[in-house]
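Journal club prep — side note

Before the paper discussion, L.F. wants everyone to see what a predicted structure for a comparable chain looks like in token form. Sequence:
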Amino acid sequence: MSKVAGATQEQAPPRHNSKVITALRRFAISITVFNLLGYLFLGFEQPWSWPIVAVLTAYATEISLEWVGSRVESRAPRYANNGVRGMVEFLYPAHISGLALNMLIYVNDQIWVMMLGVFIAVSAKWVLRAPVRGKLRHYMNPSNLGICLILLLFPAWGSIAPPYHFTEKIDHWVGWLIVAVILVSGTVLNSMLTNRMWLIMGWLSFFVVQAVVRGLLFGTSIPGALAMATGVAFVLYTNYMVTDPGTTPSKPAPQFVFGAGIAVVYGFFMVAHIAYGLFFATAVVCLIRGLFLWSLHFVNKAKEVADHDRLATATPLSSVAPVAEREAKAA
């Protein structure tokens, strides 16, 4: 326990287990290195100071909301656990969200739009929650949600970073090497730490299915529909965004359905000629999962109330006979 503002408060349990913390640490290091390489060699087009602003905005939002949450829940802030190490581990998700959003979005010279997107991405974790195994967990992918809202609210300024953003200043074979490195490192991360390979299989298999269906039914070029899978952005999305362990199912079958659902919704958006379908599809499927979790929670609560009422009405009836027998013996 710790004393804060004169009141004794319980220490909050850690937000993540050790395995998830290890995955977040490696992801945070990877995306930091990738941003450094992006600004030095790959041709990232946002100003060099923007990732710093994005990370600081994410840190400030995360710490402020955790402080408010700790007061409301009468506990010590999670960032106060284990000193400096605890603070660093607490900020891993915010660090990742800030860098990912700034890297994947382009808002011309409107830095405040980028900052707003980062604020939404981090703060939504405190608002859009659903019960999972007795705990409230956020269900909207943070970076993806921030990107979607920028695209919807500021279409004149915001867009997705162009494909050449990642390979503009390098030779052809080095571009393929970058894809290979991201693919291998992401596969190792998801197979050994996040355990989201079933989700990736569902996403990739149905991505192929939707491309074929679009080609057969709507005349889309099937090779063209599949070609986007060779880009750096697609590989980053597959290995690092869609597999977010905090907003995706943990069991194999639900994982596969989740990934397949994103591919199906993406195919629908492409048929409907809606741009940025990949990000909107992720947001839609995350929202559907959140609604499903809440509906499951209310159904279980209704069953508990019904079982309690049934037991409450059955108990007096079962005790009538013993009471009558004792009264007869006493007489």
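L.F.'s comment for the group: Residues 302 and 308 are 10 Å apart (CA to CA). Keep this in mind when we get to the figures.
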